[in-house]
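Predict structure. Input: Transportin 3, 447 residues.
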Amino acid sequence: MDGGKPTLALVYQAVQALYHDPDPAGKERASVWLGELQRSMYAWEISDQLLQLKQDVESCYFAAQTMKMKIQTSFYELPPETHTALRDSLLSHIQSLKDLSPIIVTQLALAIADLALQMASWKGCVHTLIEKYNNDVSSMTFLIEILTVLPEEVHSRSLRIGANRRTEIIEDLAYCSSTVVTLLTTCVEKAGNDEKILIKVFRCLGSWFNLGVLDSNFMASNQLLMVLFQVLQRDETSTNLHEAASDCVCSALYAIENVDTNMALALQLFQGVLTLETAYHMAVAREDLDKVLNYCRIFTELCETFLETTVRSPGQGMGDLRTLELLLICAGHPQYEVVEISFNFWYRLGEHLYKTNDPALHGIFRPYIQRLLHGLARHCQLDPDHEGIPEDTDDFGEFRMRVSDLVKDVIFLVGSMECFSQVSTVCVGADCAATRDGAHRCPLHQH
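Output follows.
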């Protein structure tokens, strides 16, 4: 920007060229010029003006993205006395542009979140935002978006904030987390079956679970958990809503990895996930692979979270071995992508059992490993009409190699001869092509 501050007309022209010029060279020139503008001091004022004018989606998106980038990487350029004006301007922009485009709202929400994290003088930002927009139904969408990205940005590598500031932020967010959950609960009550609102609420709740600041006792008695599992149990739940609910449950399970200190929430999640078996079978019957994969992710996360409890007290309380039954049900699904989701859990289980070296404990888990190996042997078979040697580098070849690695980690529980005998029954019955071909052995016959 050696020529000084560019005119808005010139900026509009460059943005139009970036998105609409049929000549690739023209697009490239516009991209380079706009990149230089974003790195200049002029970007602050020009972005603000573009957002005020709201001429079109493209220019507003460029301005919102530029504002986010400047706050992330060049916040030091602004003197402290301008920070409050910038905050007020961004809040005004997101309110006036909330209906123009969701991607613009997201960029502005990120800009506001990144500003809040770096602007130490903005005390109690979450309470400020909730008090400002809580009673305005039309503002709820962007309020939830800001509250979603705020916890996600805390550990962003783009932000230049020190460890002390980051600790202070996390403490502040923990302090106001119950207020956020109460807001989300109210949103769900008002939304009824509004799918878009539910997706946003679940995404936001998952974000706060991921940061690890929610009070587990407060969450254990909160009706949002009940709503989550109701959504996952319903046959008519859409794919997008189902994925959002599944992600949220997985985040919640991951957040309570230390089960003993989160007992009340752990019990609610444990019991909730066990109710999803019927819904899984319905998804299989409807051949809805997306939902099947979601359920398997949830079952796997459940087993990962309660792994130590399961090994410590198998069959008792939250060491209930029905958790393993859920994974073995998934292992029976005809698509190998389903069982593959659970591999990390089986690796970890094998590692835990190997370290304990307790024959009685091994005897409890041996039947589950035997059934797993039986299912894996079926998945490793080639189709009857397959010709030639399978490639190690394709998806199926890589799956078979992962099976081989898993077998190495758990075979001590069943013994190599018993394993060979069991899988041979499957492979011989199916005339295992991989076993016949000496150049490419069945991954389970290698052991």
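Confidence is low (pLDDT under 50) at residues 433-441.
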